[in-house]
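Board notes, transcribed. Complex of a protein with iron/sulfur cluster.
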Amino acid sequence: MERVVLHACCGPCLLEPLDALRAEGFEPLVVYANPNIHPRAEYERRRDVLVEYAASVGAEVVEVPYAPVLWLEATAGLWRTPAERCRACWRLRLALAARVAAERGIDALATTLTVSPYQDAAALDEVAREVAEQAGLAYVGRDFRSRYQDAVRRSKELGMYRQKYCGCMLSEWEAAKARADRDARRAKEKGGAP
Ligand code: SF4
């Protein structure tokens, strides 16, 4: 079976890409390389859910030690420009995963990030291809977004922890603000109804 390093952000996002790649004949080495996640307790919670699920389906996991300073350095100066910030974040995480691929003699790279409809798919694809090319890896670029609803359903059935924000401290704040804005809008609409 051909091996591929599958960068994975969390357990729920691992479900469908792992199955899909296995169905194609790959055996993924799951790499948890996510220094973007804040705070540490959240990082560990997502990791533990992922590790537990991977063990249940016989998938090997490598964790890249948590070093949030790498994310701070990679995104410095980009905090007010989310599109650029996310590109830098993906680049960092995929480059860390690519390093594991080199260490393990694996020559292909994929990511679970492409299951999320909340990421800019075209930009992510561009960044991932660049990282893979620079590392001398083949990019197994698969758009898993059509499987997102299945991932949500299965993660609920499995009772998996499902996070409410992408990962970094800024996304936590942005998600909280979006929820507050939505609630205020709904309250206003309700108040204005006859
Ligand atoms: S929003 Fe998500 S992808 Fe963007 S910088 Fe934060 S953690 Fe990374």
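The two ends are 64 Å apart (CA to CA). Residues 169-192 form the longest helix (24 residues).
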